[in-house]
Design goal:
Elements: H1 6-22, H2 25-31, E1 32-41, E2 44-47, H3 49-62, E3 63-76, E4 79-90, E5 95-107, E6 113-124
Parallel strand pairs: 1-6
Antiparallel strand pairs: 1-2, 3-4, 4-5, 5-6
């Protein structure tokens, strides 16, 4: 199995960032394998791209003005871990939400995400 280099992995993070900021479901389909697993939390695990897309459609209804910031990242073989921060306007709460966390990605030899696991903390801006 071919291992990706770190610059190729950084491209995957940038694609994920662009997909989130723009609610780009087409790009999401391109970066995830069809049978990928997305662990948003221990209670919310999505199996396959169709479940992942449905979850992201919900985000599109709730999130506006998404700003994703990559803080730091590490790669080894076909595993990628990155620390991130995101700020967006939460439509239902009518205030800005800030979340910060870590995402672990497992990639296949084609550079597609086969598993994403994230842990994060969330807070709302006062005001």
């Amino acid at each position: 199995m071919r291992c990706m280099n770190c610059s190729e992995m950084l491209n995957i993070i940038n694609d994920y960032k662009f997909a989130w900021e723009n609610h780009d479901l087409k790009l999401l389909r391109e970066i995830f394998e069809p049978d990928a697993t997305y662990c948003e939390s221990p209670e919310n695990i999505f199996y396959g791209i169709e479940e992942i897309i449905e979850y992201w459609k919900g985000n599109d209804l709730k999130q506006r003005h998404v700003e994703f910031e990559l803080i730091e990242w590490f790669c080894q073989k076909n595993k990628l871990v990155f620390h991130w921060k995101c700020r967006f306007y939460h439509v239902l709460k009518e205030k800005y939400k800030i979340i910060q966390g870590v995402i672990w990605l497992e990639l296949n030899s084609k550079g597609k995400i086969v598993k994403l696991t994230e842990y994060y903390h969330k807070a709302y801006e006062k005001g």
